[in-house]
Amino acid sequence: MTEADETSEDDRSVELSSIAAIFPEIKINPESPFKATLDLPVALPSPTKVYFQQPVDVGFPAALTPPTSIDEHKAELDQTAARDVHVLSYLPPVNLHIELPDGYPSEKPPRVQLNTQPPWLPAPILAKLSNDCERLWKECGQDMVVFTYIDHLQQLAETAFGIQDTNDGELYLARDLKIPLLDFNSKTEREKFEQGTFECGICLEPKKGASCHRLLRCSHVFCVPCLQDFYNTCITEGDVDSVKCLAPDCDKNQHPTPAPGSEVQTPRRKKDRTIGPSELLQIPLSTETVQRYVFLKRKKKIEADTNTVYCPRHWCQGAARSKRHPKPQDPMEDDDGSDDDEASPTEPNGKVDEAPSRENRLAICEDCNYAFCAICKKGWHGDLVFCVPRLQAEPTEEEKATEEYFRLYTTHCPTCNVPCQKLMGCNHMRCVKCDTHFCYLCSAWLSPDNPYRHFNEEGRYCYNRLWDLEGGDGENPIGADALHNIFEVDSDDDAPNELFWDLHSSDEEPEPEAEPPRRRHRAPPPAPIPLAPMPPHETRKNGSCVPSK
């Protein structure tokens, strides 16, 4: 019998062949057939908090004073602040080196060596795990023990090899391990995610994780093409508040249910948190689109702040520098502060008694760097000069035309008073700012449970007019010529309220309708069939709606 035949029939080679069939990732040394290497993954059963210890600055010793309870509480806060906490689900694998010596398994146990890279597992625990191999070999009656030992390590890996038991259930690691461990955890999570299959919440089709994106805030999964189409459309149209999770129950899950018997506190109303620019780049969206998104978000916050002071130069009209909304140096930097910050009582653009204090009168435009007074809007004159607020100037022709257009072709939200214009569809509207349901014809608030009840009640001004202006509102709405049959008024007639209808009008005399609500700034044109008379307090002239005298 040759030496090769003896080796093939050796118990050591038989055991290693069996282990290789169970663990295909094992690497057997080609130069020494009885040496092997195996990486054991460490996947925690649940996300675990890992505390990375921060170095404490050593300074000069302070004067010795008797300790107090306040000092003890301060020391606890300082100790908590010095810890950097992260949640990890995966840790770097444990590398196992196995060598089966001559005389194994009857006379000698296997030689094992354990290590981790980076060295996150303490040396005493590694030594204890190495000694477990000989202990298990003796418990098995000095028989084959390699598979039993590997299974033993896999079970201990689920609890991070007991490292939490030595620190009161908390996992403490050195600070220099933070970056490699976070990188490994992120890379492993991405690999596991790409290997899975998920159902997109938008197109409802199963997609591989490689073509999907999991939102960082809520972990909802959508396919990348659906997210790109929706977010690009929202940013192009300026609807930055809709750049958020598209799951309908996402906001409900973020509000925990109070425990039974606990005091119920009214939560402070906050707007939905939008997605950050860094995550939009990961989806990915183009750099130009993300820059526009950041610009529109900041612009909306500045315009919503009643304390914002604008540059008095007509060719600039930029906002003054503000600590509340600083201008970012990086176009990708997003001010992810709270959207519900309460405005201070000072309103520089308001009344005289609400004027800013003397030290806050200096305002500098962030666009043209023009220094001016926040009260009188003139060039900066110093703190010692008495000034009065500038009177409101006469509106320009452009401002008058804009105001007239808003009055004729928009409807204001009954909650936030934002003008809205319908592009198409029915007259059931939802405000893009406050999500209020309202009627486009009369600006009346509608119940979210049954908003169409408003259009089905007889006697109302909007009865049976759900689809008026279906093609949209405006001067020349596309595809809505037939819906804009504007009736005219003969100004020379003795009866100014007598209406002359077009050829599409009905031969029957329509019944008088109820007085419309006074929320709306104008009355919309009626539907072509049947045509109803306008309310008695308004008439039409030259195709536009004007109040009757």
TrEMBL record:
Pathway: Protein modification; protein ubiquitination. Residues 524-536 have a biased composition (Pro residues). Its EC number is 2.3.2.31. GO terms for molecular function: ubiquitin protein ligase activity; zinc ion binding. It comes from the Eukaryota. Residues 14-160 form the RWD domain. It catalyses: [E2 ubiquitin-conjugating enzyme]-S-ubiquitinyl-L-cysteine + [acceptor protein]-L-lysine = [E2 ubiquitin-conjugating enzyme]-L-cysteine + [acceptor protein]-N(6)-ubiquitinyl-L-lysine. One of its GO terms (biological process) is protein ubiquitination. This is RBR-type E3 ubiquitin transferase.
